[in-house]
Design brief:
It is a single chain. The chain is of the alpha+beta class and about 425 residues long. It has 12 helices and 10 strands. The strands form 2 sheets. It has a 6-stranded mixed sheet, with no helix packed on it. Strands 1-3-7-6 form a 4-stranded antiparallel sheet. Strand 4 and strand 5 form a beta hairpin. Helix 1 packs across helix 10, helix 6 packs antiparallel against helix 7 and helix 7 runs antiparallel to helix 12. The longest helix has about 35 residues. About 50% of the residues are buried.
């Protein structure tokens, strides 16, 4: 009977979400990332707004809004993942309300915007940094979105079940009035999507414990590292730090006082990191720069994003988005070949890179990192993390052990200031 019940619930989940949601975070993870991100905000108007008990579930509803389009089998889902929609929503709010956005309606829209934006950035960081590592260490990330949902729900039990919520008339107007989007869903489709995504959330809560062990055994590296703070790039807590910075950039955008240069959200590896991987075929040689604005794809050229080695010699490399959007926040940089051991490199973003609204950096932005040492020189260098070895018989921790503490093992690539090893992509 338990197996039959699990099968029915999985079937419900399958009809609630389309296969196009297979890559990236699951819907409960998205709500939880937003919950975590609020805790990283400094005290002030934005943190007070997003912490308002009347708005918490609206932030969560915004956090699953992009995937509601997949649930409704409507094109608005993919569109709502990206900066053209986010920028359209920012412009609509600015045209519809006045700062400090303190009316009840304005506050609801700001909360929903922040949730929607959280979703888009979280998927870019997760797919660029964490999902790529699951492919490398576990062999296949195709079930990662659902697997991570079962791990999160079983091990951390977040209180993220919500009622359907969408301001369908306003959001239809956002689509219709956009200078960046040439599609608009009907209000009926928006309402339908909000209902279907809640069905998917309820199904996940019901089935998580039944599927938990299977996904854990299938992806033990992912299961062990998905909730490891900022020691593992793209883990849920690590993503939340980027989302919090993004929200602050959006708050400035809403007030018309933002600049592209001021809103580099963060990098991977961090400036000054050590133990960066040298072997190009490993995913740890992928670096990332995240911006608080959508970057125009046509300006993402090798001339505008460059990798420098010793003596400021240009190192052949490529810069791209994780997927094919015309505007994205996360820029990925990877060398074309292996790097040298124990060598400092620097990534520079030039003034030719432009945001979705045509603005450019006023001066170049750069960050530096140092590669790991050669095997015969480890005694003179920062310690490397223990290499990951897949257990012969992977098994999750006992269910009655409570919330699983962070394990010590597992690769975390580049560190910071010779401290615990951090990881670049």
């Amino acid at each position: 009977m338990l197996q039959r019940r699990a099968g029915v619930l999985v079937a419900l989940l399958a009809v609630s979400l389309s296969p196009s949601t297979a890559a990236a975070n699951g819907v409960v993870s998205h709500m939880h990332i937003s919950d975590l991100a609020v805790g990283h905000l400094p005290a002030g108007e934005l943190r007070a707004l997003l912490s308002d008990p009347e708005l918490v579930d609206i932030v969560r509803a915004g956090s699953v809004f992009p995937d509601s389009g997949y649930a409704a089998d409507d094109d608005y889902g993919e569109i709502a993942h990206w900066e053209p929609f986010t920028q359209s929503y920012v412009e609509w709010i600015r045209a519809s309300f006045e700062p400090p956005y303190d009316s009840p309606e304005a506050r609801r829209h700001v909360a929903f915007l922040m949730g929607q934006a959280s979703h888009g950035l979280a998927d870019q960081v997760f797919d660029s940094l964490f999902m790529a590592r699951v492919d490398q260490f576990d062999g296949d990330s195709s079930d990662l979105d659902t697997g991570a949902e079962t791990w999160l729900l079983t091990e951390h039990d977040p209180d993220n079940q919500i009622e359907p919520y969408v301001d369908e008339v306003a959001l239809r107007d956002v689509f219709e009035g956009s200078a960046y989007i040439d599609y608009a869903p009907t209000t009926d489709q928006l309402v339908y999507g909000s209902e279907r995504i809640v069905q998917a959330i309820d199904a996940l809560y019901a089935v998580a414990t039944f599927a938990y062990e299977d996904y854990w055994v299938q992806m033990p590296w992912g299961a062990t590292h998905y909730y490891e703070a900022d020691e593992v790039p793209g883990s849920l807590p690590h993503i939340a730090t980027f989302v919090s910075a993004y929200w602050q950039a959006l708050w400035e955008r809403l007030h018309g006082r933002d600049t592209l240069a001021a809103h580099v959200l963060g990098t991977w590896p961090e400036d000054g990191a050590v133990n960066f991987e040298v072997t190009r075929e490993r995913i740890e040689t992928r670096a990332m720069v995240a911006f608080g604005h959508g970057i125009a794809a046509e300006t993402l050229t090798d001339a505008n994003v460059r990798l420098f080695g010793p003596g400021d010699e240009v190192v052949p490399s490529s810069a791209r988005f994780i997927y094919g959007s015309s505007h994205a926040n996360a820029v990925l940089v990877r060398p074309d070949g292996d790097l040298a051991y124990d060598t400092e490199y620097r990534i520079e973003v030039g003034t030719g890179l432009e945001s979705i609204d045509g603005r450019a950096l006023e001066e170049p932005f750069s960050f530096a990192f140092r590669t790991r040492c050669a095997p015969d020189a480890l005694d003179e260098c920062p310690p490397l993390p223990e290499p990951w070895e897949r257990p012969e018989d992977p098994m999750p921790p006992p269910r009655d052990a409570g919330t699983r503490p962070r394990p010590d093992a597992g690769p975390a690539d580049a560190g910071v200031d010779a401290g615990p090893a951090h990881e670049p992509d």
